[in-house]
Amino acid sequence: xxDFEAAETEDLSQGPSRAxxxxxxxxxxxxxxxMAVFVFVIGALVRxxxxxxxxxxxxxxxxxxLYWSRHALDHVGYRRRFRYRRVFPGEALDVHIVAxxxxxLPVLWLQIEDEWPVDFAPEEQxxxxxxxxxxxxxxxxxxxxxxxxxxxxxYTLLASRRGLYPLGPATLLSGDPFGLFERESxxxxxxxxxxxxxxxxxEEFGLDAKxxxxxxxxxxxxFEDPQRVMGVRGYRSTDxxxxxxxQATARTGNLQVRQYEPTRSQSLVLxxxxxxxxxxxxxxxxxxxxxLVSLAASLASWAVEKEYAVxxxxxxxxxxxxxxxxxxxxxxxxxxxxxxxxxxxxxNFITADYAQFLxxxxxxxxxxxxxxxxxxxxxxxxxAALMRLRQSGRRVVLYVLGSTPPPxxxxxxxxxxxxxxxxxxxxxQPIRLAGDAGExxxxxxxxxxxxxx
Length: 453
Fold this sequence. Notes:
The protein has 453 residues and is an alpha+beta fold. Helix content is 26%, strand content 32%. It has 9 helices and 21 strands. The strands form 5 sheets. Strands 15, 16, 17, 18, 19, 20 and 21 form a 7-stranded mixed sheet that branches. A 6-stranded antiparallel sheet has the order 1-11-10-5-7-6.
């Protein structure tokens, strides 16, 4: 009796039938060509028309197959079409996969293997073939294209988690009708899909949606906007030398200072500590990271709606870079999408100590900026940095998301503190070093089958 389970296991143990590299791949042994030529010569010498016909037919088939395979992928196009490329976790997105043969020579078989992120995969998981990587799979499609034919296939993608997801590269594999030669080409990486962090009402975090930063009374103060000069006036003892208008001083003979237009606009910078534990070597707490980023996105959405100039900084690198994330405060119409895209691309690669990072980055901020520090824990260094910022005149709001509340220190009296503990238990993800071999979905499937689970 045929063992279907063994056959299924053997089939899953093989990946997509990708060729070894770009270019042409011969499945035909060249010695058959020399044998056909030899048989043709022998048939001509002995004047055997049957041998000559058979060998000539073989040579014609080989020449036809070689020509067909060389031009099989000429003018063959592959495209992904999206209505939009930015979604939130849990949303669905339709994609149209288009394969086109824009020449007169038909493509009798074409296999396209498109590298695809697992976290933004089609709703039908069977559509995505496993690969050797943990976060990647292959969207495999097979076509038979006539001359000047275009085929469109539709998939519904499900965004499962925050992140930036580049698509591709795609590998196109085709050949001749006889299966003697294959040819492969690779398309470059294509579109970038963005999954924003989850935005929730501030009440779900336990915050007051009317005043999460304690700025209601502060907003009534009038600040001088250094970008908008209203005129000049005489110098006063309380004026800073940085505001002296030297040209007007030279013209009048008396010290003159610039007079700026008053403004009530507020500036906010969200400072994220992407370290989950007091020591980074303990690993990463994925639920805490997503909880922290979701809170930051919710605060940014509220602040932009209230016409704050909102910025972002984090002591972790942006995706595919090695520099800490910095976004200057702004209040443009596209500021919130810019902030959400930056949060979507925050990686787990820590670039700086959080306490020193706060002190260094504070010099880049406008003076009337409220610093909202979001962290999973507090330490002596972090508290000392926050108190130093407060003593220098900065407005500081601290959000502690771990289970341990921050200590009540004398120097913290001027800092607004929120304790918003996460409810999920930590599932620690160890730091994976370069060269570590991860377990693929196929490996887990085979292991579960062996264990009988």
